[in-house]
């Protein structure tokens, strides 16, 4: 299977929608539950070094959970962090659908 290189999906509206949202990652013992620190944290892998994944492969994350996802802190088990991040991405996608920031053609 060959992969077609494409430009990542970037959405200023999705990125800005994270402001003031509750953290959807909620890593036990790590999450600060402070909506004022929430950003859109990319969960998936990009196709190269320093390349982010699509904005729909991201989650609303507080600063502590974002640091854990990106490996800037040694708090927590990496498998648990990754699991919480992907579960947060699923919850975030539901919010984005409800807010009309992403659509599914039927």
Descriptive overview:
- The mean pLDDT is 89.
- A two-stranded antiparallel sheet has the order 1-2.
- The longest helix has 21 residues, at 78-98.
- It is built from three helices and two strands; from the N terminus they run αββαα.
- The protein has 106 residues and is mainly alpha-helical.
Looking at this protein, list some descriptive labels:
globular; single chain; about 110 residues; two-stranded antiparallel sheet; mainly alpha; 2 strands
Q: What's a quick, concise take on this entry?
A:
The protein is built from 3 helices and 2 strands; from the N terminus they run αββαα. It has helices at 12-17, 63-69, 78-98, and strands at 39-42, 58-61. The protein has a two-stranded antiparallel sheet with strand order 1-2.
Overall pLDDT score = 89
Rough outline: globular
Gyration radius (Cα, Å) is 14 Å
Distance between the termini: 27 Å
By DSSP, the count of extended strands is 2
Structural class designation: mainly alpha
Considering DSSP H and I runs of 4 or more, what fraction of the residues is helical? 25-40%
Task: Assess the beta-strand content as a share of residues.
Answer: 5-15%
């Amino acid at each position: 299977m060959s992969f077609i290189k494409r430009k990542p999906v970037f959405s200023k509206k999705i990125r800005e929608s994270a402001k003031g949202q509750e953290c959807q990652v909620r890593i036990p013992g790590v999450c600060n539950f402070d909506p004022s620190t929430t950003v859109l944290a990319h969960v998936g892998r990009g196709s190269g070094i320093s390349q982010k994944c699509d904005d729909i492969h991201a989650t609303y994350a507080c600063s502590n959970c974002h640091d854990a996802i990106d490996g800037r802190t040694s708090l927590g088990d990496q498998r648990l962090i990754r699991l919480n991040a992907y579960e947060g991405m699923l919850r975030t996608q539901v919010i984005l659908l409800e807010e009309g920031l992403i659509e599914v053609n039927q």
